[in-house]
């Protein structure tokens, strides 16, 4: 992950966080990941940012009650008004073992006081412009 602004957080999974199977709700984990990614993006933009996309979400490991979930969020790409953040959620067992539970890429847009998109510092001038034909639908703007 990049050396720029980060949004790393840790949560302990409690009984109120799990589903009927006793594993962490996927939506709860995505909420935590979005929060960590927002911190990284806002630190970079030094202004309010909002989530516009969550892509390539892959759940790889169920998380149990009592586990820690360590979420690491780092800037992946800077557009003109957008910031893409790579997020990895690690399942930490009580013995210290850590395995990836989920990974995703989130895109945020920086806003001005009126709620309109504004350029972010260090932005590439045409980074938010439509991409050439080789861009797939899963690639963020």
TrEMBL record:
What PROSITE patterns does this protein map onto? HOTDOG_ACOT (PS51770)
InterPro entries from the entry?
Answer: Cytosol_ACT (IPR040170), HOTDOG_ACOT (IPR033120), HotDog_dom_sf (IPR029069), Thioestr_dom (IPR006683)
Q: Which Gene3D superfamilies match?
A: Hotdog Thioesterase (3.10.129.10)
Its GO biological process terms? acyl-CoA metabolic process; fatty acid catabolic process
Query: Could you tell me which residue ranges the HotDog ACOT-type domain spans?
Result: 3-114
Q: Name one GO cellular component term.
A: cytosol
Stored Pfam families? 4HBT
User: Can you provide one Gene Ontology molecular function annotated for this UniProt record?
Assistant: long-chain fatty acyl-CoA hydrolase activity
Its domain of life reads Bacteria
Outline the segment boundaries, as ranges, of region: Disordered: 122-141
Keywords, in A-Z order: Hydrolase
- Note the coiled coil stretches, chain numbering: none
PANTHER family recorded for this chain?
ACYL COENZYME A THIOESTER HYDROLASE, CYTOSOLIC ACYL COENZYME A THIOESTER HYDROLASE
Protein family: Belongs to the acyl coenzyme A hydrolase family.
Name of this protein: Acyl-CoA thioesterase
Natural source organism: Sulfobacillus harzensis
Organismal lineage: Bacteria, Bacillati, Bacillota, Clostridia, Eubacteriales
């Amino acid at each position: 992950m990049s050396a720029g602004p980060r949004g790393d957080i840790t949560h302990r999974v409690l009984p109120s966080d799990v589903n009927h199977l006793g594993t962490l709700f996927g939506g709860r984990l995505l909420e935590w990941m979005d929060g960590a990614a927002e911190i990284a993006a806002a630190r970079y933009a030094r202004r309010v940012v909002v989530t516009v996309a969550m892509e390539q979400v892959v759940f790889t490991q169920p998380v149990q009650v009592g586990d820690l979930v360590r979420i690491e969020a780092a800037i992946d790409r800077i557009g003109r008004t957008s910031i893409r953040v790579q997020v990895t959620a690690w399942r930490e067992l009580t013995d210290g073992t850590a395995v990836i539970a989920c990974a995703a890429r989130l895109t945020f847009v920086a806003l001005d006081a009126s709620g309109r998109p504004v350029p972010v510092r260090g932005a590439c001038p045409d980074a938010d412009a439509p991409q050439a034909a080789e861009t797939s639908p899963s690639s963020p703007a």
